[in-house]
Design brief:
Strand content: 15-25%
CATH class of the largest domain: Alpha Beta
Largest sheet: 9 strands, mixed
Distance between the termini: 15 Å
Number of helices: 19
Bound molecules: adenosine-5'-diphosphate
Oligomer: single chain
CATH topology of the largest domain: Rossmann fold
Structural class: alpha/beta
């Protein structure tokens, strides 16, 4: 089965969040199931410089007004990539979608329309390589791919649109319709039109044969006005063709037995190495060295989605209760400032690193006792999966994929010995504070805590099950004709 993944990010070539991790990992799991997967990416500088065995597949005369090239190559791990080398569109450094000042880049609409159009042509066999049977587009940046295939009359190529986060919709002024080469009639209610704008994600939802999102709970949540972010009704109308398939993580990248970025390797059978990592993390973050205090952590975008505004108000509570906090992340300046102020106030108990740091994220996962993910909504979430793989207990909002992947330490789950973390329902100071107290109580019951850790580290958090689910979905779509 020939599958073209269309996405704007792919670890390790270009990453701003979980999308890159998914696109960088799921192809290997699909290939283990017998699929033949190619990933189509924008030719950002790190993508082009990160490819091995590069060849020019095609020279294109006019991509959004300038010449461009299609480059084939492989990642270091052997994943097949085709990149759209169009310097006038993708020669940007830093965040690929936003300027330094946080504003969206002015040419987002043009560049991702061009990207999706070439993706459709690539899938249709226009560039000397065989056609693809399945086109799997990710998020709004690839959202128009199915619309272009529809405009080309290629209903035979089956399309899947995955929504990684409904908050990012790719909505643009309607005048853009005259510049993106789609027929005017696509700008309609059951089409690209969204409150008199053009919505690229809506295009993916409307024109794809199937829509997936990244957890079963999120797939249900988004079919409602409350959580549908404006698309609740539309998603409900597509309910028959909408499903949730959980994300996994790359078990080679996240492996405490071999991880080169942590202070001591360890395994599910012997978690002793975690203590050395805790000491190393305390040192690295300038914290007081202490074995028996619970060391909580955060590795996250610092946004209100992630509920970290609420956690910021509880740092004193954590410290007064005898805990420590190590935080790595960046985002909202007010949330950054709140955590920085807390670190200043409690320099030996709270360590804050503002920024993005992959190796430090590994050391934190290995060294911390528990991780906070108090999200208000969470399509799937990867940090809780990484945490569990490292025997670190997640403390998370009961939403989306967090609900699907964490077993709350309820009295029933504790009695059965199956708990892997703590879940709480209302993202407010009162509820989170009570949950923090619950975490302290569990931590101070060493046998229970040890069991939760063991349960966490033995959870299946890889791609094997989900790859089978995607393969079954693709096979169903191909059978439908
Ligand atoms: P998001 O909504 O940001 O995509 P996910 O939990 O799905 O959230 O994925 C986030 C990914 O990015 C995880 O792999 C997490 O470890 C990583 N991450 C987030 N912030 C940082 C950071 N500041 N430094 C390193 N890795 C980070």
């Amino acid at each position: 089965m020939r599958i073209l993944m269309v996405a704007s990010e792919c670890f390790p070539l270009i990453k701003t969040g979980g999308l890159a991790d998914v696109v960088g990992a799921v192809p290997f799991a699909l290939e283990a199931e017998g699929a033949d997967v190619t990933v189509f990416l924008p030719g950002f500088p790190t993508v082009l410089s990160g490819l091995k065995s590069k060849k020019t597949l095609a020279k294109l005369k006019d991509v959004a007004g300038e010449p461009a090239k299609l480059i084939t190559g492989k990642t270091a791990k052997g994943l097949s990539i085709i990149a759209l080398d169009a310097p006038h569109l993708f020669n940007v450094t830093g965040n690929p979608y936003q300027e330094k000042n946080g504003l969206d880049r002015a040419d987002n609409a043009i560049k991702f329309a061009a990207f999706s159009k070439i993706a459709a042509q690539l899938a249709a066999g226009d560039f000397k390589i065989p056609e693809f049977e399945i086109v799997h587009a990710h998020d709004w940046q690839a959202g128009l791919t199915a619309a272009y295939l529809k405009a080309m009359g290629r209903d035979d190529i089956k399309t899947v649109q995955t929504i990684h986060n409904l908050a990012f919709q790719g909505n643009f002024p309607k005048h853009i319709m005259s510049n993106i080469g789609l027929p005017d009639e696509f700008f309609r209610d059951y089409g690209l039109e969204y409150w008199d704008k053009v919505s690229y994600l809506k295009g993916g939802i409307v024109y794809s044969d199937h829509v997936t999102t990244v957890s079963p709970t999120y797939a249900l949540e988004i079919q409602s006005d409350a959580s549908g972010m404006g698309f609740g009704g539309l998603l409900k109308s597509r309910g028959q063709d909408l499903s949730g398939i959980l994300n996994g993580i790359d078990l080679d990248v996240w492996n405490p037995e071999t991880d080169p970025d942590i202070a001591a390797n360890y395994s599910a059978e012997n978690l002793a190495g975690k203590a050395k990592n805790k000491a190393a993390l305390q040192k690295k973050m300038g914290l007081r060295k202490a074995k028996d205090v619970p060391l909580f952590c955060v590795i996250s975008r610092l946004t209100t989605q992630k509920g970290l505004d609420v956690l910021a108000g509880l740092v004193d509570h954590i410290v007064l209760s005898g805990g420590q906090l190590a935080l790595l992340g960046s985002g909202d300046s007010t949330i950054e400032a709140a955590f920085l102020a807390a670190a200043k106030k409690h320099p030996t108990e709270v360590g804050v690193q503002i920024g993005y740091d992959e190796p430090l994220a590994h050391l934190i996962q290995a060294g911390a006792d528990a991780i906070f993910i108090p999200s208000r909504f969470e399509p799937c979430g990867l940090t809780q999966l990484c945490a569990m793989r490292y025997g670190t207990v997640p403390i998370a909002g009961r939403v989306g994929g967090l609900n699907d992947t964490i077993i709350d330490a309820s009295p029933a789950a504790l009695a059965k010995g199956v708990a892997t973390g703590l879940l709480f329902s209302d993202i407010d100071v009162h509820t989170l504070s009570a949950t923090i107290d619950r975490a302290f109580a569990l931590y101070r019951a060493p046998k229970i805590w040890a069991q939760m850790r063991r349960n966490a580290i033995t959870q299946p958090v890889g791609w094997a099950l989900s790859a089978k689910a995607y393969m079954a979905l693709y096979a169903d779509l191909l059978k439908a004709d």
